[in-house]
């Protein structure tokens, strides 16, 4: 990539990349292009996971995508940071688990840690069990432990002509 370093018409600087005007005498037009500097992205060594970066070199303002992946069973991303020198670079978390940032005018170092997934206890109950039952992952059990990030299926089953009224998660009704 390159950019316009200087653009002059008759010795006068032109703003932007276009000059439009009436010429009534000889005039010298000078345009000087310069190559945009490329900056590097490095990933510091990490355990229990990998981090890929695309692209590994970028111009200032270019979008860079960072993909952390746990490689050890039962692990997940713990922390991820990006720094340009001592300055933090803002990372945006995307719904697909990737992160993006806008390349600053300097090299960036990515640090990531991976940790064991937490165990999460799921407890379900029905306030009126004679009017309906609740199943957890297809079972009549009312309690299970899953790993952080696992999916559970909780189904409310009204009996006879009863209807399902509402859910409450940690005491808050939806």
User: What is the typical, i.e. mean, pLDDT?
Assistant: 90
- Measured distance between first and last alpha carbons: 52 Å
Number of DSSP helices? 0
SSE series: EEEEEEEEEEEEEEEEEE
Q: Tell me, briefly, the overall form.
A: elongated
The counted number of beta strands is 18
Side-by-side strand order of the widest sheet: 6-4-12-8-9
Q: How much strand?
A: over 45%
| Residues in helices, as a percent range | under 10%
Structural class: mainly beta
Describe the sheet with the most strands.
Answer: 5 strands, mixed
Detail the poorly predicted runs.
none
* Rg from Cα: 29 Å
Summarize the SSE layout with pairings.
Blueprint: E1 2-9, E2 12-13, E3 29-35, E4 38-43, E5 49-54, E6 57-59, E7 63-70, E8 75-84, E9 87-88, E10 92-93, E11 99-102, E12 108-116, E13 119-123, E14 132-136, E15 143-147, E16 154-158, E17 168-169, E18 172-173
Parallel strand pairs: 4-12
Antiparallel strand pairs: 1-2, 1-3, 4-6, 5-7, 7-11, 8-9, 8-12, 10-11, 13-15, 14-16, 17-18
